[in-house]
């Protein structure tokens, strides 16, 4: 009986390691295809906002790459997508809009989606703001997050390309572990 328990534990640990590695490889594939200006709409996925409307490091890195992209492709309109968490004093979308405008992006190019509280809601609620015929979109998020975001967007019948923001080193390990669990959940239940 004891041998059976040990064998089962070894098997489960082995399966866990394989699953962990596989999910890591899946996450790495999220940074392709790289956006090239062919989509008329971009969605920046929200992330934590600190007190006083200060973007977290993750959100700031998303915004920095978005500004560069929007500057290079002036025909692209952008949806800033993110509601207000219980520990946030402003909506993520309002902080993103202010940041973009301060960096020279015209207000007429920015569409606000400020009700979402998850990646899935970011995409569902943003889709409602897009012209009905829109099929192709560009998603901006941190590199670790893009695989799941693309998966969810494709489930909503979008064709997706991406702009990958680097994940801040100070939070990378924690976010990559958490994202593996979120990606597995998404694969199992679909959102």
From TrEMBL:
Keyword Ribosomal protein: no
Segments forming domain DUF218: 40-174
Keyword Hydrolase among UniProt keywords: no
UniProtKB keywords: Membrane, Transmembrane, Transmembrane helix
Matching InterPro entries: Cell_Envelope_Assoc (IPR051599), DUF218 (IPR003848), Rossmann-like_a/b/a_fold (IPR014729)
Transmembrane parts of this sequence: 5-23
Recorded superkingdom: Bacteria
PANTHER family xref list: ENVELOPE BIOGENESIS FACTOR ELYC (PTHR30336:SF4), INNER MEMBRANE PROTEIN, PROBABLE PERMEASE (PTHR30336)
Protein's name in the database: YdcF family protein
